[in-house]
Amino acid sequence: MSKCLENKFSMKKTAIKIVLTSLLGLMGTTQAFAVDKAAFVYIGPTSDHGWTYSHDQGRIKAEKALAGKYKTSYIENVPETADAERVIRNLAQQGNKVIFATSFGYMNAMEKVSKQFPNTVFMHATGYKQGKNLGVYDVRTYEGAYMLGVVAGQKTKSNVLGVVASFPIPEVVRNINAYTLGAQSVNPKVKTKVIWVNSWFNPGKERDAALALISQKADVLMQNTDSPAVVQAAQQKGVFAFGWDSDMSKFGPKAHLAASVLHWEKIYTPTMTQVANKTWKPSATWYGVKQSAVNIENFGPSVPANVKASALKVRDDIHSGKLHPFSGPIYKQDGSLVIAKGKTLDDATLSKMNYYVKGVEGSLPK
């Protein structure tokens, strides 16, 4: 082969290499851009060790389970005001395939923005409004509250339980009632006192409410708020409390009896998969013990083996369908019958609960 022909052949090989390298580079770039994005809007900080923390753990686990398919992000401390609408719209404009908003007060903002971005999937936690690209989801926290009540009813000496509550919406009222019913199932003498703090995350108010309940002889506390302040107060005063939404034992090792732990990845992973596969359809998802989305975990050293066993049996009975926390007979605070023996409140009724059951003291804020 002449030197001239050899040079021409070498140049052609180099050109082919350049073209192939460019094509492979483009393929790699396309693959990178093919990774879907999902965004999460949080009411509190991810460090609250409660509601927001549990959602963020679900986000992390879902992204790990879908490794290479999704890139997730979040914005924390988003108030339930016009700011929420702005944040949600910005996330849609950034090209997120699915946006999860994790507090009830985001509902109207989600509905409005979802109509403006029909190609984006919107998922709202604890709400009820749906649309063509707007779904709702929740975890049956009342099942966790009922299981905690079973433990509380056996641990209390004063027969007075306390609840530090956030806002008087059906979700929270339902949890207070379930806690009370669970305790009464093992201890009919139990009464429950409630203090409302009108906040999801305010450690100072939560602590003050816990101390006030303790001063009223409540010796086992539950909360429907997000910080570990209640557990810390219980530890200080020598009474008992529960982790809510996540394990809070490190904040009060002696006080912590158990935790109602939420596993949001049980919803996030399949939802993100459906969005990626273009099989997602709007629906109302409400997962509980049966789907392993809520569980009683992290029993403390103050829980005897028989009490732990009774709580776990209740969990197993809920899982199998043998037990429902809101099966009759159930009576309202005023003694009127809610539902007769042998019958169970359906989801539609549970979602509108606006009364205390018998055994809860005080009046429900209006």
Number of helices: 11
Low-confidence stretches: 1-33
Instruction: Please bin the fraction of helical residues.
Output: 40-55%
Order of helices and strands: HEHEHEHEEHEHEHEHEEHEEHEEH
Number of strands: 14
Query: Beta-sheet strand percentage?
Result: 15-25%
The biggest beta sheet reads:
6 strands, parallel
What is the residue-mean pLDDT, rounded to a whole number? 92
Estimated radius of gyration: 25 Å
Distance between the termini: 96 Å
> Per the principal axes of the C-alpha atoms, what is the gross shape?
globular
The spatial strand order of the largest sheet comes to 2-1-3-4-5-11
Pairing-aware structural class of the strands and helices? alpha/beta
What does this structure look like?
- The protein is of the alpha/beta class and 366 residues long.
- Helices cover 42% and strands 19% of the residues.
- It contains eleven helices and 14 strands.
- It has helices spanning 3-33, 51-65, 82-93, 107-116, 141-155, 170-184, 203-215, 229-237, 265-277, 305-320, 347-350; strands spanning 36-41, 70-75, 98-101, 121-125, 134-139, 160-165, 191-196, 220-223, 240-245, 256-262, 284-287, 294-297, 330-331, 337-339.
- Strand 1 (36-41), helix 2 (51-65) and strand 2 (70-75) form a beta-alpha-beta unit.
- The radius of gyration is 25 Å and the shape is globular.
